[in-house]
Design goal:
Length: 149
């Protein structure tokens, strides 16, 4: 059972963790796009200005499949992400405080989409919720807590 005195992670520290994680995914994805598109920056950045055609299956894999697989792996292995680990945070089941289950992790990931749809209000929700849960956390019944590890 999750202890009542648990320290929930707030909006700003979670934003910092997200920026670290985004940078890591950028560092992983950019070289793949660079190699596949042979340095065509307009294709790499998806500007639509390239004279060459983009490859839909590769764009979907690199921009959606890879981040999904990467995120599921780190959440299942560490109950966290590299950014959260660096800032001393952990994702847990909201009721038990135990490690995420795979279904919860998938639901939490998918929950980011409705959370960002209306001006990101589902993410900003973290700042005002008593348990510091965003909409994606509420959907998956998870919380992000500070750890002493």
């Amino acid at each position: 059972m999750l202890q009542p005195e648990v320290d929930y992670a707030g909006f700003w520290i979670r934003t910092g963790a997200c920026l670290i994680d985004t940078f890591i995914l950028f560092v992983i994805t950019l070289p793949l796009l660079w190699m596949y598109y042979q340095g065509d920056w307009d294709l790499i950045l998806g500007t639509g200005l390239s004279v060459n055609e983009s490859v839909l299956w590769f764009d979907l894999l690199a921009n959606y499949g890879l981040p999904f697989i990467y995120t599921m792996m780190v959440w299942m292995i560490w109950s966290s992400s590299p950014g959260k680990i660096l800032l001393g945070l952990k994702i847990t089941d909201a009721e038990t405080g135990e490690k995420l289950k795979f279904g919860q992790a998938v639901l939490r990931y998918v929950g980011y989409f409705p959370a960002i749809l209306i001006f990101g209000i589902g993410l900003f929700w973290v700042a005002f919720d008593k348990r510091k849960q965003g909409w994606h956390d509420k959907m998956a019944k998870t919380v992000v807590i500070r750890t002493n590890e």
